[in-house]
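Hi R.,

Here are the chain sequences for the assembly we discussed:
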Amino acid sequence: MKATFGVWSPHRESTSVLAFKSALGLRPERWVWCDDRQQASWWVVDAALGVSEDWTADLRKEKEGFRTQGALLARDWAAVGDPVWAFLKLPLQVDIIYRWVDACLLQHPEPRLLLSGQRLKLKRWPNMSRYSSASNLAGGMNLTVACARLLKDWVTYEEAVSIANDKAALDGLLMDAQRHGILEMASPVQATSMVAEAANPTTGENPGKTEDPKTWSLIRRLINKFK
Amino acid sequence: MVTDQTFNQQIQVNNLQIVLGHTIEHQVVFVGPFGVGKTTALRVVSDIPVVNTDVASSEAEAGASGQGKTTTTAGFDYGEWRFPDNTKVSLIGVPGQDRFEAMWDIMLPRSSAIVLWLYGDRDARLMECSKWLNALAMRKSIARLAVAVTRLPEGNQEEALKPYRELVSQYHPLAPIITADPRLSSDVLQAITMALTTPYAALERM
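And here is the predicted structure of the full complex:
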C-alpha cells in the first residue's frame, strides 16, 4: 500500500509550486492536492505571491498536533519571515526537496495520512476497548459498528465518519490501525460503485446478504438505549 | 424466570393488554473458565437483578483456581436488557467447569452472540482458550464470537493479544479479541456489540 499524503497550497498556479508538486510526484508515495489545509500534512507557499500571517499561525498550531510540514519557496533567505516554514531556495533542486521530505519522514515516521476521499478496509478488529469510555457508551458502540462495516466492505472515509459519529475517535483508531498494519487504503476510483452495494447498518436498509436484519435492529436499539 | 423466557404470559391489568408468547428476541451468552468474571460482567450490564445459581465452590475451597472466588455458578446466571417496545434480550452466563457441559449444550446453539472471557495472566491461558474454542466449534457456536481477555499484565497489550489472535483465527478469521475488564460496563458492551456485528461471511467460506 502506498502512503498517501495531502498537499495544500494557496498558490497552485505558481510555476514554482507546480514544480515542487511535480518533484513530489516522482517519489514512491502518493501526493494529492487538498483544498482544505486542515486535511493536508504538507503545505507549500510561494513567497513571491505573499504569505499570510494566518497560514503561519495555523502551521505553528498544526505542527504541534499533527506533524504538518510547511515549505516556503523563495529566491532569498530574507523572504522567510518565520522559522516555522522550511526554506527551499529557487530555482528548486529535486535532491534538496527529497532530502527535506526524507528528513521530515524520518523525524515523524507516522505523518498524518490523507483519509478524506479514500476507500478504507480493516483486515481485522482493532483492540476496541482502547477506544471505549464509560461516559460515552453509545459513542463506543457507534465506533464498533463503523469498524464492523470496515471489516466487511470497502467503505469511504466519509461514510465511516458518518457511522461512527465521532471523527476524532475514528481518526485515532484508523491511525493506530495503520501503524499496526491492519488498515488497507485504496484510491477513490471505483469507490462509488463498491460502496453503493454495501449495506448501511445505521439505517437498517439492506444490512448485508449474510446478516440477520434482526441483529442490526438490536444494535440500533442498543445504541439508542445507551445514548 | 425460566418460565418467563420460554413462555411468557403477561397480563397488564391497568390497560388489559395481554401478550402471549415470549418476548425474548436475542440471547447473549457469556462463557469462559471458572472465576474469570462472567457473572460480574452480566451484573454490570443487566437491567434486572441477576438471577443466579451460585453455590459454595469446591474449587475455591481447594484453592485450585478462581483467584479468591468462593462461589460458582451451578446452573446458569440470567439477566436481561429490556426495551421500550417490551422486547427483551436475555443475558446468560453458563458455568465454566466441564461437569456442567450439559448447560453449554442447551444454551450455546441458540445464542445470538457469545462472549468468551479468558484469563490473560495464567500459564495455561492459551490451552484454556483452545479448549473453549473447540467446545464452541463443536456446538456450532463460533460465528458470533468475541473474545475478551481479562487481567492482562501491564505492558504491550497488542503483543500480549497476538497468540490469542493466532489461535482464534484458526476458528474464525474475523473474530474480535479485546482486552476487557468485566467490572466495566463499557468493556462488556463493547464485547457484546463486537460479537453481534462481526461479519461471518468469511467463516461460511471456510
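Residues 61-66 of chain B have pLDDT under 50 and may be disordered. Residues 23-204 of chain B form a domain with the Rossmann fold fold (CATH 3.40.50.300).

Let me know if anything looks off.

Best,
T.
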